[in-house]
Each structure stands twice: as C-alpha cells, then as structure tokens.
Amino acid sequence: MVLLFFMDGVKYDMMKESMPYLSSLNTKPLVSEFGYSCACHATMYTSRYVDEHQTWFIWKRGERSPYRWLNGVPFLKYVDFLPLKLAVGKVTQRFSRNTSYSGVPCLVNLPLKYWPLFEPCDTVLWDDPAWKKELPNLFTILRDHHVPRHVIALHRGTKPDDAFKEERQADYQNDQFVYYFIGYTDNIMHAHGENGNEARAYFATVDAFVRETCEKAKKARGDVTVIAYSDHGHIDLEAPLVNINDFFKPAGLNVKRYVHLIESNYARFWLRDDREREEVTAALRAMEEKGLGFILTQPYLDHYHLNLDPKAHGELVFYLAAPHEFTNTIWGFGHSVKSGHGYEPTLTKHYGFFASNKPLAKDREFISLTDVLPTVMRQLDIPTEGYTLRGSNVVGTDTSD
Q1: Same structural domain for residues 144 and 165?
Q2: What contacts 90, CB < 8 A, 6 or more positions away?
Q3: Is 0.90 surpassed by the pTM of this model?
Q4: Residue 118 vs residues 58, 125, 130, 199, 260: alpha-carbon distances, Å
Q5: Which tens digits make up the pLDDT trace of 62-90?
Q6: Per residue in 225-278, pLDDT tens?
Q7: Range of the domain at 218
Q8: Are residues 295 and 159 in the same domain?
Q9: For the chain, what is the domain count?
C-alpha cells in the first residue's frame, strides 16, 4: 500500500525544523520547476518537462478566454475602473465551467480590453479524466490499472483542515493507494512567512496528522510505503517590492499600453511591433541593472525546459528574483504576503522536500518532480515500459529501473 502526501510550498529547511516525524524519515531536498505551481503539478503527475506538458503559468494567451464575452460589449472593454473589473470577474466566475484548482481569477491590474486575450492553462482539476488527456498521468494510469484508491481533499478553496476531515474517506483495508492533498501549507506561508509562529505551528499539526494517518494505515495493512513531498520552497520577502511601471515612467511610458501579465515574480509581454520590443526591453534591462532579476534568454529556456510557444506563454519574460516580488499584479494592487514561492530551482533556499519511510536512492543528491510518477508506479508494481518518463524511481532498496 502506498500513502502519498503532497504538501504545497513546504521548504526543505522548514520541514527539517518544524516537522519531527517527517524529518525522522529518509529525506532529500527536492528541486522544483522554474514556473508556477500549476507547472509543478503537471510535471509531477506526468513526469514530463514543462515544454512537453505545456503548463507553465495559470494564464496563457489563447482563443478560449472565459472573458471573451466582453468582445460583445465593446464600450465595456475600454473602461478601466476597478469596481467594474471586480464585477466582471464575479459574473464570469459565476457562469464559468472552469473547475481547475485556480479557477478563473480576476485580472485586476490589467485593462479590461486585454482580458479576452487570455485563457487559463488548466480548466479542470488534475484528477479529472479531461486533464492532460493527451498524456498519461498519475490518475489515468491508476485508473487504467484498476488500482483501488482514494484521493483526499483535492478540490478548490483549500481550507486548513480539509485533509484532516476527509481522511476518513480512505479505506485502508482495501485501498492500494491513497493521495492526500494538503494545500493550506502554502497559504499559511504566504500569510505569515517562515519566521511566523502560525506557520510553524500549522506545519507541526500537519506532521502529527501524517504520523497518525501512517500508524492507522499500518495497523490495517502492515507494510505501508509512505511518501511525502512538496512542489517548491518558500522564501520570506524583502524590500524592495517592485512596481514595474516605475521602470517605464522615466521614458514617458505606461506598462498598461502593452499586452502583458504581471504575476508575483514574473512579467510576461506579447509584443505588437519592434518599437514595443525596444521599449519593453529597455525597461526590463533597467531592472536587470539594479540586480532585481533577469530576462529569460535562450540558455535559461533550454536549461529549464521552457521552450514553449511564445505566442501563448510570452514573447519576452522577466523573472524578478527572490526575495523580491511585484506589486500591482494580476492578484491585486497591494502586497500583504510575507513569503513568496521559491521558483529558481538551483538555489538551495528554494528547495522543496521528499521523504519516505523506505530507503531513498543513494546516488541521488536531490529528488526531482519528474521522479514522483515513476516512483509511485514502481511501488505499486505498475510496469513503466511503454511510458515516456523523465524521472525515475527513487524509493526502495533497489532503485534501479
């Protein structure tokens, strides 16, 4: 029997300091993706790279925007008024059929005229049969092999005690696989940061839940393989928090004139002509010169497997390096979060964690998100032949494939 505990945004160092049960197991740092959480989930469930599964950010440019109805109300698109934007967002969310984890957020900092240009990368949750249906993934493979299983607390609107309450759905006598989605670990890190007592106390509560659940399963089944892991780390934010328009203003420009998305620590642009490319590049270079981050040039795209269609995912992408984040983003105008996602995978402060009660591969210093799917398959004796898997099994005394 395999118990798979996913914990969003738990940093390796935080796990070692605040989660005594998990830190008593065999553990290794986990290297994340250079992108958003949705990219991490797609990688760990498919064992494919970002440019293969095609999910990098929550939004991409496309023809199936939930806001395309605005094209039928032409005057509405040219009103840049926050209460109206919020109303448009609420109306759209009400009638949208999107059931993904992120749903259809309101792009509050973006002029309404640009909203119909963008669509969510994901439209359903990861365990929905329609998710990545062109690629075998954890959930379709388990279905195809008729593995008795339960998926616990994987739904929108994650709350602190979802997994704790819904754990009773698992059938430890008959299940061969149980997946627990613990998403609030990320929320509480954003709210309180790694130095906040609230975050550390919640991590301890989660740790106790994992220990108690494992003991419960072992009483029912005896031999249980426990795997717990996160998708990325977190890092407490520091000044300066960056308003990207401050780097356009010296040239008499306003970022709102460009087709763009400003996310927590990414700025993506879709350029209409060479003049726009020159103007935007100059503003981004000014941020680079201040040591705030860098434009994702071809070597970065190659190294992190980010060669996606630029027309969909951004023709010019700037990464704002931690511990800094943007203000005036698609998430809102202020900035109240204490901690940000760790998305530069090569930095140790951004590592997630991977833990198991079984031995981990001795020849691996780090675990990758691509290792999650082949590891689960191996523990469940599901053959990996015939599947394209970019990772490998990392759990057990014999970790060869």
Answers
A1: yes
A2: 106
A3: yes
A4: 10, 19, 20, 34, 10
A5: 999 999 999 998 888 788 888 999 999 99
A6: 999 999 999 989 888 889 999 999 999 999 999 999 999 899 999 999 999 999
A7: 2-53+124-234+345-379
A8: no
A9: 2
